[in-house]
Amino acid sequence: MAAITGAVVAAAAVFLPAWALVLLTIPILERTRQHPWLQAALRGVNPAVIGVIAVALLKMVPVAMPDPPRAALAVVTVLVMLRWSISPPLLIFAGAVLGLALGR
To answer: What is the pTM of this model?
Structure first.
């Protein structure tokens, strides 16, 4: 909604809480990682997390890839990530530049 500023605020709102939660829980998880009950809980949570991510991805596809050029850009990006060890932030930046170029 607010161009680059809105994108930065939205990205921070999405990623900062999860990042903070991970940082806060790492010491606790390290101490309790060997407990059988925690291992069982994590085995149960993993498929749920994968499902939530898959649903979120499927809901974003029509917005993120509204036309064939942007869909091709997404496919090429995934192929590049799988083939070469290119830094994800670099790919995100390159995708943003190409996406802006496609939008004009």
So the answer is: 0.48
